[in-house]
Specification:
With about 400 residues, this protein is α+β, with helices and mostly antiparallel strands. Helices cover about 45% and strands about 10% of the residues. The termini are far apart.
């Protein structure tokens, strides 16, 4: 067994020890650039097999060692045979993995995989090609968005960014199956080579609220939707974080909201100062015996964010404000972007606003800048002055 390297220019596969490719390319420079592709080479029943192992040499060596052990233990034929399963069979296995079922995004993940199953679910995973994935991308872009509990078809076509997300979800599943020895690494090749439909950052939203729009929607929204909006504009919390907010996350003296890593998208704990506006919302909430959620509807926890979104859309329509991600309208998440924009205008330091919003510090800042609770309390006071002024 051995690790082979592939020249990105002529795609020749040769020993990892070779310094130059047949086309004259300097392989040491290719390695430093990160463009080198590695393959694990071994023989089974007299036939040579090549398995793609990614662009990391250490990962390729680990894959080579794994196959060597499997061959020595007589298990390699069983593993290779298991790669002859269909994508639908693989996804059924994936849904049973505890690490996957515990993901907060499991529901959305499953929808993406089932969309893929509807087109390529009966194909053998290792037989899926780059062309198959290109056909899937074109087909999905011509499909109409399905939404709601009944998954009814709407009149808006699936966006290219949604197609990219589905391919990414499927690629993650295939990679997970490879690491669990369910399929061979060759199955990953088509997914790695498939290009995204949208360039990274090219579809980034820039829409923010102004105080007139925000007040107009608040005027037309139901009370529980208004509570969500007030907390969002005064903290920068995500809709899902607000929905899952419990009384145990609130300081007894109502100075801070403290979220555990399991409560946030970033999987990191977060501390958000409570200003007077949020404190007023919290003080008028009733505490219920049968649950510990802060914000409720009819005394019950709000199970899905769809209900809040629906109320927000109705209020926006009544206020005459265009709603919609693709139409250039407003969406609830734009409140979070508005918060960071206003914090910047208020002169709040980047480290402080990143701490409040849960964004990671970059470079050496994450090692040398320590932000205290007092720092973010002071920052929140400056931000609250901007919000309360009503000029933004």
């Amino acid at each position: 067994m051995s690790v082979m390297q592939e020249c990105p220019v002529c795609h020749t596969k040769q020993s990892n020890r070779n310094k130059r490719c047949r086309c004259g390319n300097d392989m040491d420079k290719v390695k430093k650039s990160g463009n080198m592709r590695y393959w694990v080479s071994y023989r089974v029943n007299g036939k040579q097999r090549l398995e793609y192992s990614g662009t990391d040499f250490e990962q390729a060596k680990a894959g080579d060692g794994k196959r060597s052990c499997q061959k020595a233990e007589g298990r390699i034929l069983d593993i290779l045979q298991s790669s002859k399963i269909t994508f639908r069979q693989l996804s059924d296995w994936y849904y049973t993995q505890v690490a996957i079922t515990r993901l907060k995004s499991f529901k959305r993940l499953k929808i993406g995989i089932e969309n893929f199953n509807a087109v390529l679910g009966d194909n053998i995973v290792s037989d899926i090609t780059k062309d198959d994935l290109a056909i899937y991308q074109e087909k999905r872009k011509n499909d109409f968005v399905r939404s709601g509990a009944q998954r009814k078809e709407g009149n808006r076509r699936v966006s290219p960014s949604t197609v990219d997300m589905e391919i990414s979800i499927v690629k993650t599943m295939v990679n997970y199956a490879f690491l669990e020895d369910k399929i061979s690494g060759t199955s990953l090749k088509a997914f790695i080579r498939t290009k995204k439909q949208v360039r990274t950052g090219s579809n980034a939203r820039t829409r923010t609220f102004n105080n007139i729009e925000f007040a107009a929607i608040m005027k037309n929204a139901k009370k529980h939707v208004c509570d969500f909006m007030i907390i969002a504009i005064n903290t920068g919390m995500r809709l899902g974080e607000i929905r899952q907010l419990k009384w145990e996350n609130i300081d007894n003296d109502m100075r801070f909201i403290r979220l555990d890593s399991s409560d946030t998208k970033e999987k990191k704990s977060k501390v958000i100062p409570i200003n007077q506006n949020v404190k007023c919302v919290l003080e008028r909430q009733l505490r219920w015996i049968h649950h510990n959620f802060v914000l409720t509807w009819g005394g019950n926890p709000i199970i899905s964010i769809e209900g809040i979104k629906g109320g927000f859309i109705n209020a926006a329509n009544k206020a005459g404000i265009l709603y919609g991600r693709d139409s250039g309208g407003i969406i609830f998440h734009d409140i979070r972007r508005t918060v960071k924009t206003l914090m910047t205008r208020a002169g709040i330091e980047k480290a402080h606003r990143d701490k409040i919003l849960g964004h990671s510090q970059q470079g050496m800042d994450r090692h040398y800048i320590v932000v205290s609770d007092q720092d973010i309390e002071s920052a929140m006071k400056k931000y609250s002055q901007v919000i309360d002024s009503g000029i933004w």
